[in-house]
Amino acid sequence: MILALVSALLLGLIIGSFLNVCIYRIPREKSIVNPPSSCPGCGAPIKPWDNIPVVSYLLLTGKCRQCGARISLRYPAVELLNGLMYVAVLRHFGIGWHLPLLFALVSAMVVITFIDLDFQIIPDVITLPGMIIGLASAHFLIPDPFARYSVLGFSNSLIGLIAGGVSFYLIAILSRGGLGGGDVKMMAMLGTFMGWKGVFLTTLVGSLTGSLFGIALMIFKGKGRKTKIPFGPFLALGSLVTLFFGRVIIDWYFPG
C-alpha cells in the first residue's frame, strides 16, 4: 500500500504539471499540446530538467533559469495539491478500476477552481465530456459516495444530472445573472458522478462556504453585496467534501 500511495503521489504531481498548462491555456483558447511549455516572461522553452514537478521550482528558487523572472507559487501549489488529492482518493476508495475516473474528477475540480478564480468561467470542454463520462461509467465504475462497496448506478447518475442541471438552471434564471451557465453544467456533471444526494450536499457545502467567504470580504475588505464571487471553487470544495465525507455527513444529518 505504501508503494501504491507513493505512486499515486508521483502520478498526481506529474498530472498536476499538465493541469497548470490547462489552467493557463484553456481560457485563452490555446492548444494544451503545442507549443511546449515556455517561460511567460522571456518565452524560452522550459527544459525537461527544469520541469520536474515541485522539485524544479525549489532548485530554481522560483525563477526562470534564462531571464530570472519570478515563477508564480501557484505552479508547485497546483502540482502538490493534485498529488495529495490522488493520495486521498487512493486511501479512501482503495485500488480498483474506479481510480482513473476519480483521479480525473478531482483534477477537473482543480482546473475549474483556478480558471474560475482568474476568468470567472467554467469551460464546457471540461463539463460536457464529464457528463458523458459520468453517465457512461456510473453503472460499472463509479463508487457511490454514500454507500460503501456499491457503485452509483446509471439511474442515480441520470437523476443526479437532472437534479443538478435543472435546479441550478432555475437558480440562474431567478438570480438574473447571479449564477452562470458554467455553474449549471458543472453541477450537472457532478450529479452524474455523485447522484442526487451528492447534488444536495455539494450545493449545501458550496453555498455555506461561499456565503461565509462573501461575508468575510464585506467585513475585512469592504466589498459590497453586489461584488461578483466565482461560485465554481466553492462547488468544487463541496464536491470534494461529498466525495470523501458524504456518507458520514448524511448519516449524521439524517440519523436512522
Structure write-up:
The protein has 256 residues and is mostly helical. It has two domains: 95 residues, no CATH class; 159 residues, no CATH class. The chain contains eight helices and no strands. The model has no long low-confidence stretch (mean pLDDT 91).
Write the layout of secondary structure elements.
Layout: H1 2-25, H2 55-59, H3 74-93, H4 99-119, H5 124-137, H6 154-175, H7 181-220, H8 232-253
Q: Give the N-terminus to C-terminus distance in angstroms.
A: 34 Å
Instruction: Write down the overall mean pLDDT.
Output: 91
- Count of separate structural domains: 2
Radius of gyration: 19 Å
Please provide the count of β strands.
0
Sequence stretches where pLDDT stays below 50 over 5 or more residues: none
Key features of this structure:
256 residues, 8 helices, globular, mainly alpha
In short:
By secondary structure, the chain is mainly alpha-helical.
